[in-house]
Fold this protein.
Amino acid sequence: MIATYRDFLVGLYQEHLEEASFLFEQRRHLFTDDELSWIQLAEFEDRLEAHLDALVVGGDLALEVCRAAASDGDSGQLFAAVTVFCRLEQAPLLAHVLKVIDLTQEERTAALSEALRYELPVAWRDSCLRAIEQGDERLVPVLAKAMAYRRLRIDAALLPRLSTAGTTALPALLWCIGRTATAVSAAPVRGLVPSEDQPTSAAAVRAALRLHDEPTFHWLMSSARGGRFDPVALGLAGGPSAVGVLLDALASPEPSADVVIALALLGDLAAVRPLAESLSIERLARHVAEALHVITGADLIEEVLIPDEISEEEMFPDEVAAYRETGQRPRRPDGEPFGTKARLVSREAGVWQEWLSANASRFTRGTRYRFGRPCTPRVLYDCLRSVTFPKAYRPFAAEELLIRYGIDLPLETDMFVAQQMEILDAAQRRIDEAAAIFERGRWYFAGQIIS
């Protein structure tokens, strides 16, 4: 009877792990679902939390099942197991995972990193710092990111690594330093800004801008004028003088999506009509429509059919023949393509031109706009809380609050919804106080108006 009951419990805990794994993967997928607001993720997170909690209260037998899953389970089960180890402060079990995990398996490494970012106990800070200083070079970004996510001061351990780390690890280390260091630590970061390795240079610029490093800001502006620049960094920190540089890049033969994003972040009206004209560039149409939406707040949403990708292996022989002859994929009995209907921002240039002409009086040139309002810390804060503001731009809003206005929220937009809401609620007073300091619709860097 005891063995039977034990087997029942083992099966129950394994089922909790499987369900947790499914919800973990589902949550990841839903981050990119334009139909779902960021707050709606809470429903899936609550279900995930119920399974995690059942494992936490399951005692030694649940730990045994989690230990096996951490070694042999899929990436979602690894996430759940490491979460349990952290919540129960089972340091030896986590140490074993760190020792045996194959860091070349990207999915498992990402799952481990995600669990540590959410759950790493503050009490383990010193042990993790020793591991960073003495441990496996490949684990350094994983542990550092977990602590930086929690805004634990680790820059003293990371800064010496900048001179020895390889280009694969440097962007992650710079991300961490940008979240845990102070302005006095900016010089080593600044030294990597001119790096020939583009990911390293971009990460160094972003980290230095978060540290309000003026030499890096001036380097960015100078590089933009010289044609070598990171568009997104320019959008996060630049002023109206950067708009012309970005518009030239938009008019180039192969404009990038990052240029479109940067123009949205700058929020200058001078970019609106050129962006509307760029809706004809098919590969950029989604990005351009979203950028126009971010600047103007125009509610030009339409229902669009997104065709399913169907391979020839999935078609009947007559459908394959028709596809090869005409290029037309199989259709439903009503003649419509197989696909999913989604509500997306309009990509019709005529629709946008008509809206812009009808609403021109609502906007003033020389003003920075975000979601149809002259930009302020309060507007960015409202965008972070909004259920209609595009999810892809929420991380930028949090970055802008620090880079432009010096308001540092310990917020990452892939945190669980409940944690994000807690951080945003706590920031309410600081945001209200900022309303009296900063002028509406002006461009700032480090709290100073820029041109």
Observations:
- The first helix runs from residue 2 to 30.
- The chain is about 60% helix and 5% strand.
- The chain has a mean pLDDT of 91.
